[in-house]
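Hi P.,

Sorry for the delay on this. The queue was packed all week, but I finally got your sequence through. Input first:
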Amino acid sequence: VIAGSYSIRSNSPTNLDPNSCWIKSPWLKPGSGNISFKMKFESNSSATNRRIILTYCAYDPNSLSSSKEAVHVRFDSITYTTPLPTTAQTLNFAVPAAIANSGQPYKIRISLVGIGGTTRFNVDDLVIPGTYWSDPSSNCLPLPTIQDADSDGVADANDAYPNDATRAYNNMYPAAGKGTLMFEDLWPTTGDYDFNDYVASYRYNVVTNASNKVVEIKFTLTTRAIGASLKNGFGLQFDNIAPAKVTAVTGTQTHNAAWVSTAANGTENGQTYANVIFFDDAFKILPSPGGSGVNVDPANPYATPVDLNVTVSFNTAPGEAIGINDLNLNPYLIVNQERGREVHLAGGLPTSKANTALFGTGQDATNPGIGKYYKTKNNLPWAIAVEAEIPYPKTKVDILEVYKNFASWAESSGASSADWYLDMPGYRDTNKLYDEP
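Then the structure:
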């Protein structure tokens, strides 16, 4: 023996056929690295030639043999001639790139062959990098395997990006169709409260990798109406996510606005949390075809809504990646090019650039001490997000007159009438809604 109590001893070789004498692994999924073992000859007497030959074979479920082995492929060998070494040697053979980390089952065969004399091989401490993948309960055939072209651990059948190891899943929000964003831009006063100063449909896709870490978010924001005369911008804050977590932003339209300052990664400078300014002026996204505003007065020409596609990419390095549950998306309007005048959804955190001196003025009842932001004393908001594409009021028509259960929903902070926006009997005054073609 070379080590321990047992080792592998060959017969006396009689020919160089690799099928004449061999040891073979069970089915395994080979890893990368070296196949290694110790080897020595018993003596060097009258041995003309000795050879070690390594081959591998794939699993062939259609094979007529009970072992289901495909044809063996030779990938390495070593030859010894007289005089043979009789001290133990450590041998290393690289696992072929064709099978290393492929995720598929293979067998490794080591042939110990030769001619001339009776000298035998002794082999010990055999190591093959990989994962045992044999099923003793089924004639030692391979365990089931998945097809995984990019080797990210997600089966191709479940992988939205089967040839891209950095991406695996699409997470759509809303899951079906589009949602709606509606803003009233006269905050901190309620103004006409028609919620059509900026109206957009939205849908986004959070792309995650095999570890459910966020790779990128692909936003589609469809500008449908601009009821205001003010030139409003639109931003999105990623609450509690540092700007450095973002690696790139594409698709924004800020037209070199003086109040927009962005870092190399596309996020806004001077922010505690990552902020992305989608556009600086809604009228540059959806220009007015004539008359006051865009798509709020039936007497004026209609403008076809315009999509803005923005992609935000994230750092996925260990310790830096964020999970899908870490996301809290916080959209807001920037009123009339005044960077600090932000209009968020009810409860939305202001950004670091918000003008907090406006809190508590007009009808605003913001109280940061209790976490109350962008609500009136009766909890009415200045911005709305719903998970459906809904119509909006005509210009100068109070939303409380249009959606009959809106006040109940808002004043209860969402505890009542959560379905206020649905097209149900008695829920809407359709005569006061703008009729989009």
